[in-house]
Specification:
By secondary structure, the chain is mainly alpha-helical. It is built from ten helices and three strands; from the N terminus they run H-H-H-H-H-H-H-E-E-H-H-E-H. Strands 1-2-3 form a three-stranded mixed β-sheet. A hairpin with a 5-residue loop joins strand 1 and strand 2.
Amino acid sequence: MHDHAPTDLRSSSNRRLLTISLCLTATVMIVQVIGAILSGSLALLADAAHMFTDSSALVVALIASAVAARPADDRRTFGYQRAEVFGALINAIILIVLMVVVALQGISRLIEPGEVEVAGPLMLTVAVIGMIANAISMWLLSSAQKHSINVRGAYLEVMGDLIGSVMVIIAAIVIVTTGWMPADAIASLVIAVMILPRAISLLREVFSVLAESAPKGTQVSEIREHLRGYDGVVDVHDVHVWQLTRSAPVFTAHVRVEPDVLMDGRAATLLDEFHTCLSDHFDVEHSTFQLEPADRSECEAAHD
């Protein structure tokens, strides 16, 4: 008998992982909302709002993942992989809006605390449940987020929730042991502050892709010099490197070669070597090269 099921749940498809994380997040969100109402905790409500945002972000990620899986056609020759990038952009915007709302609520409660009474024990119990659920979701997405900007957006959302749950737990412990109620509002502000760098980081990555910048860590000069080292290659110019989405880099270049390379029929072999080089040494699966004879004038090359 052979068991063909994946030995690690994290090896499941991106959509399945996002669906499982969505179910966990939505369930805990409902628990946190109820707990926030019953305990009167602003920090718990802020964390629940964050969980709501995560649920929305995961729905967006699922939709983007489904769209990105559609095959290429004559109009969209690269397919729909950019849908993941737009999904990540929406996630980042949601994070920024959430940060502003939670910060305003926290400041308001510190300025006008009123007769706020927070049920510390209930707040602590619900926060621990949230922390466990977020830890499970992070574990599920930890592998896939390295290869998909869309899943990475969801992963960062869950990471923020995990840290938020820890902050709520600390505030709850302070309230239970000392009765100091402002700890709840302070925790909500800390959660809001933590959201900002995550949103900025995700926005930077999204804009880098949309601006067709070279992928992070890619040294164009190093690739150019590597290609120049092949026998028969005179020069490499008009080099362009960009990415459709995370882990989907694209490379194009014009390569000037000795006339003998083209006359002796070595062009096909050289192209195969180029593709293997880009794939094995620089993790670029999609590469395109135009070979030009070295004795060709610059004017002729410019008109192609």
